[in-house]
# Entry
Amino acid sequence: MSEMPNLRGQEQHGFKAWWKSGDPWIWITGGGVAISVLLVAGLLLLIAARGLAHFWPAPIVGASYQAPGSSPMPVLAALRSEETVSRARLESAGLPVRGDQQLYDRLLLKVGNRDLYGSDFRYVISDWLTQRSYPEDATVFERLEWGNLIGYLVAVKQQGNVVADGPQAWEVFQERQERANQLRDDIEHLEKVEIGRINYGLEQQRLKQRRLELENALTAERQAEIDARIAELNADYRVLEDELVALYGEINRDSVVVEVVTGEQINVPLAKVVRGYRPNAMGLFGKLRFYGAKVWEFVSEEPREANTEGGIFPAIFGTVMMVLLMSVFVTPFGVVAALYLREYAKQGFVTRTIRVAVNNLAGVPSIVYGVFGLGFFVYFLGGSIDALFYPEALPSPTFGTGGLLWASLTLAILTLPVVIVATEEGLARIPRSIREASLALGATRAETLWRVVLPMSSPAMMTGLILAVARAAGEVAPLMLVGVVKLAPSLPLDGNFPYLHLDRKFMHLGFHIYDVGFQSPNVEAARPLVYATALLLVLVIITLNLFAVRVRNRLREKYRALEH
# Structure
């Protein structure tokens, strides 16, 4: 019995020693990190499930819908989702609920045909949807305007004359739709690239003439050169215009006759149809091919239908380009500032005050940086640049309005404190003995900093850049003031000199999420695109960060031997 107190004492002593060793805090920290990783993974899975499911071809149901006390109504729509709602919720919506049932299954149907019904989506009670069938010939036509058209293909017409009807109409439609899509691509190339190049050249000649007039240097010889160049461009335009008219005539040749669920027949030109498909007739591999095509369209095409259809490639391009430019601007400024504070500045009250100010700048709300960018970069610098270098374009601003350059510089200022702090910490970790060894071998102080200190601190610089990229890629508030727009007519990068147009406005994934989620008139169509765009934004940030992490790890391995 006397051994029991000794055992208890040893256990208490062992627990106290284990507690004082700090191991519990390691386990708690590890558990917190694991929980955070699981939460992030779960959030990403939720976003992926809600967003990527949107591109899967939903089945088309044909049925009769009859609410209590009303006449039956024919329905032909795509089943999008199902949820359980309470009786009180239905009664508050004004639905004629009868009986004692307390819970109901509610379906979200995409009825399409917005030009006929006024809305794409409709909620229905599952129990009231009777006589269901899934007709294999039910067809969904994706249109450039008015969303999807859901119905039955009746006939294919050429110049108003029926060329195919009945079962063979589907194969003829597919062939002619491919032709129409190719013609649409040719028209887009002609309008945006070829005619866009001519319009750009004409505008440059107009500005050149205006510049010479302002300088009182517009001689008869120069005027003749400008007129000759304009005449040459106009001649090229007339040739392209004839090609464009011919292409429009070709693409408007074919049309289809579609019968909707009400029995009405509608004539739809193939020029306005993107694709047609029959989800109920698709097998698994057919649905997978369709799914892949829709996902690729989402990441490679331009948006349409108020950003609720099509793709988001301009937003992807604008986000990546802005982040790359921001990195180019913020890295040298941040490194130079950290180098001065650590290596050259006197370590006194003023330097400490500057460090405190830099740390406080990291906590300033991002919208404040947007206001600063609007006032300083856009109005002051941009207006001065326009007055000095682009007076011929005034009063239309060139750099005196929001654009890619000012957005990148604004985010560079926003992320500058992060780069400064990370770089300064990297400089502080380099042993003093390495500096002294370099100086003892005859290197100057500048050579020591350039050839020894900066390369060894490059992993810390990359850490600061990684943090800067992670924050800048997701910022939206300042960009709304300095250059981002809902829909940019052209990319900042094209084939016209100087190729990269820093003065142009651009699209951004973060602002696209805000616009689609809160400004779209078609809420149900926009909801899955919000999830899909958010997932894509996360993937873009992860990709940029992984590239920077890989570069940092290589630099760390390269200079690790020197640190020891």
Summary: The mean pLDDT is 89.
